[in-house]
Amino acid sequence: MSRGRKPRGIPLDELLSAHAATGERLADLRARNVADVAPVSALEPKSSTRPKQPKTAAKKAAGARFARLDDSQVGPKPKVRLVGYARVSTDEQTTKLQLDALQAAGCAVIHEDSASGASRSRPGLSRALEDLAAGDTLVVWRLDRLGRSLRDLLDLAEMLRERDVALRSLTDHIDTGTAAGRMLYAVLGAVAQFEHDVLRERTVAGMRAAKRRGEHIGRRPALTTAQIREARGLVKTGKSPTYVARIMRVGRSTLYRALEG
Questions:
Q1: CA-CA distance, 204 to 143, in Å (whole number)?
Q2: Does 121 participate in catalysis according to the annotation?
Q3: β-pairing, 174-175 with 137-140?
Q4: Cross-sheet strand order for the sheet of 174-175
Q5: Residues 217-245: pLDDT tens digits?
Q6: pLDDT score of 110 more than 90
Q7: Which contiguous run of DSSP H or E holds residue 153?
Q8: Residue of 41, 47, 89, 119 marked catalytic
Q9: What are the two backbone dihedrals, phi and then psi, of residue 12, each rounded to the nearest 5 degrees?
Q10: Rg from Cα positions in the chain
Q11: For residue 235, what are the CA distances in angstroms to 221, 222, 238, 242?
Q12: Do 98 and 135 meet the contact criterion of CB atoms below 8 Å apart?
């Protein structure tokens, strides 16, 4: 706007007072400011003659996140295969109690053993381990059915974890397929390691104390002091070491070490 030029337009206070007054005053105001008054028709928006286009689905931009599928679009989760294992000691009667519990848990197949927990020969457990695949779960009635000791049990659980196989105990309410079960096994592993370290420290301390007392540490010697003395006498009389070793029922290398000691 150039300087000195009177601004155009109807002052707001005059317009309001004119509306509040008689019609003659409003008409006079419009006549004096006819250039600044626009008809109502000029203020209405012009209707567009362009035909409306049907709405189409907007294309997803590159890198945009897709909408989350609802339950009707997601297929059912694959069912976990359960493989059961039951074992009874030689002094127990039957595995019926364990079998009933494993069948009620939904085990597809159950392998059995009838042997002591300290026995290394457990063909049923070997068959169960061979039957397991990634994603399966090994189910037992109680954890002591699996291992001879806590260390053996933890080693077995670690082996199953590496194969992506979970371990479930029905009586102990432990399932390594859950976060709580994995945490419990971590605690048991720490306890087993602590027990192993304490036992090792006690063994080393006992061996040092025995050495200070002059006691022999290690395996029992194959030849006593009297036998070594007798063997030396035979060799001095001309007997061959092979003959003397056969007499003493030891190997020649053992006889040589005894004579040199």
A1: 31
A2: no
A3: unpaired
A4: 109-114, 82-88, 137-140, 166-169, 174-175
A5: 777 777 888 888 888 888 888 888 888 88
A6: yes
A7: helix 150-162
A8: 89
A9: -65, -40
A10: 48
A11: 20, 18, 5, 10
A12: no
